[in-house]
Amino acid sequence: MPVAAHPDSPLDLPVRRVGPVPFRVATLDVAISALCARSVAATTGMAVHFANAYSVAIADTQPEYAAVLADPGSATFSDGVPVTWVGRRAYPDLAAVWQRVYGPDVMTGVFRRCQRQQLPIGHYLLGGSAETLDALREGIATSWPAVRIAGAESPPFGPLNQSQTRQQADRIRESGASMVWVGLGTPKQDFAAHDLAASVPATVLAVGAAFDFLAGTKRQAPLWMQRSGTEWAYRLATEPVRLGRRYLWGNPRFLLAAARQPGLRRR
Question: In the beta sheet, which residues pair with residue 123?
Answer without folding.
Answer: 149, 179
